Every structure is written in C-alpha cells, then in structure tokens.
Amino acid sequence: MQLNRFMIRPYVEQALREEIGPGDTTGGFMVGDDPVQTAQIYAKGNGVACGLLLADETVKTVDSDAQVEHMVKDGDDMKPGTVLLKIKAKASTFFMIERCALDWLQQMSGLATKTRRYCDLVKHTKVRLTDTRKGWPGLRMLQKYAVRVGGAANHIFSLHNCVLVKDNHIKIAGGIKPAMEILRAKAQHTFKIEVECESLEMVQEALDCGVEVIMFDNMDMDEMRAGLKLVNGRATTEASGGINEQTIVPIAETGVDIISVGDLTHSIRALDISLDVRDIKPSAHRAIQRMKEVTS
User: Fold this and answer.
1) Any idea which residues carry the catalytic annotation?
2) Residue 44 buriedness (CB in 10 A; 0-12 / 13-18 / 19+)
3) pLDDT of residue 27
C-alpha cells in the first residue's frame, strides 16, 4: 500500500478544519508582516519514521508557496536529533500546522515502530504478521499504511474485500457447512474463504468443507498445535485473539502461517517529535516590539 496526496487530502483538510477553525487567535496577532522563516521537524526518541507525506501536505495546504525538504523517508530508523523535514514558509504557517503535522508523525511513527518491534520478535520464524480492523474509525487506511511501513502485512481492509466467516455468521447460518453452502453459491469466485474456528471440531468441519484459510481463534497452545496437525497443510492457518509481545514468539514457533495482531493498531504510544523555528527575521522582532508598544 502506498499513499498519495489525492488519498490523504481529505484527512489533512479535516484535521486543519478542527485545528484552525475560523482562524488562529494567538499566532495571527504575532506575525506582523508575516516574514518567511525556516524550521525543522525532528525526532526526540528512537523509532521508525512514518507519516511524512501527511505532514508535508499539512504544510502545503496552509501555505501553497511553502518549501518542504524530506530528510528521511517513511520506514527509516530515527534517533534523538534525526531531522525528518526542513520547512521554509511564512511565519503564520508554522503556528497553524505545527500540531496537526506533529500529530500525524507522532501517531503513525508510533504505530510503525510498534509493528517493527513485533516483526523483530518473530523474524526467526516463517510466520506472516498482519494487522486487524481494530483501531481508529475512519482512519483505517492510514493505520494499515503504517503497519506496512513497520514491516508487517495487512489483513482484511473492510467487509467488501474478503470472505471472513466469524462466530455470529456461523450461528445465524446454523453451522459452518450451511454457511459454506450459501457462500459458495453466492460469493465472488475469486475470493478465498476464511473461517474463524474456536475448537478442533470446528477446524475439522471447516476442512471437510474445503475452506482455504482456517483461523485458530483464541486457542491455547496445545489446541493450536493439535489444530496444525489436523490441518496438515490442507489450508492456510492463522492464529488470532489477544496476542501480545509476551505470547507472539511461542505462537509463531508452532509453525502457523499467519498471526493477526489487533494490538498493532488499537493501542499506540505516540513518539516524541518536535518542530523548532530555526531563525527569527528582524521584521518579526519589529512586529513583536510594535505589538508590545500598542498593548503597553
């Protein structure tokens, strides 16, 4: 998955509407003749950079004449002091874009960093690590992009692009077999069918129905190993449900094909990233002095 300006523009515009509203009531009074300034956005901790295009688009939406230089790219490692972006823009621009630009970078870099940590834990195995749909409503595309930047893969994006049979589908259909009969007759033939199984009996029923992907849902390690023996290569296997950094390694070492982890996206710690104006033009000092004289 890649991002482009057309895709991200609605997110950026909504964020700026929320941030700026009818105008900046602090910075608007302080810029005087609004001189051009330079600034840099830099990391204050270790992590994986992500969200640079969103920060860039935030700047250029506010100030179309702004110049933004990318010093790193999404997926690059960063450490304290790593400069991510250099910006040349009107002084008023920095007041309006700072919070939104930093929020995109902090949240998405936090997500990519967490994903990289999970990937590193299981890189000695053959497992494919994926996300889930748990996370920020309305921002799923951005989360899934950050997961890819961090080194993992994406699971189902939305209800339209996968046949994923969960417990409530099975209950309503009256079992896995009747659910498969309905889906085989009506679903698009290009889709694989994945079934969520909570027991070995369900695994066997799914196998009997020729299901292509079997999810071991919240199974303990003994059940999962038994399930893998039962499948014996006849379907792709996936482990899911409550997986975290403490449990993912032994699960990966069972030989399961895929592990889907909701924790990648539903609980993110933002990284510490800042913006600093690098120089102050004399005209800005004069504007500040005039303001002091008027208000004194």
Assistant:
1) 99, 134, 166, 196, 217
2) middle
3) 64
